[in-house]
Structure formats: C-alpha cells, structure tokens
Input
Amino acid sequence: MSAPKKTPSAVSDQPSFAERLAALETIVKRMESGELPLEASLAAYTEGVQLLQACQTSLEQAEQTVMLLNQQQQLTPFEAN
Output
C-alpha cells in the first residue's frame, strides 16, 4: 500500500509569508487600539517581534534566490512595450 500524497499545505506546518504578515498587521491594530491590558500588550509585542523576524528571514531567502537565479542568467530583463 502506498503512502498518501501530501498536499502543499500538509508538507509544511509553517505559516506562509502572507499569513505571517497578516497576523503581524492584526497585532499592530490591536496594540494601536489602546484597549489591551499591559500583560496582553507585552505578549502581543513578543509575538509581533517573532513574526517580524520570520518575515525578514523569508524576504532574505527570497532575495538570495532571486540573486542566484539572476547570476545563473535564468531571469530575463522585463521590457515594457
């Protein structure tokens, strides 16, 4: 019997860049509302810092990939008409 095929979402339990960014935006809005108690604000801030670091790491990895592809000349310049 063969193993079931994994869907892309099943391959990685990690949230995507877009999901992390949306969560970060939600945290910022909640904190800016001024309605969070101190403890919740600190917890939200900590979560926000972790999300920001994960987003920055994703962007750095994407930049490295683009640079590598460009060095291998696998990208063609965009020419507007």
About this structure: The radius of gyration is 19 Å. The mean pLDDT is 84. The longest helix spans residues 38-71.
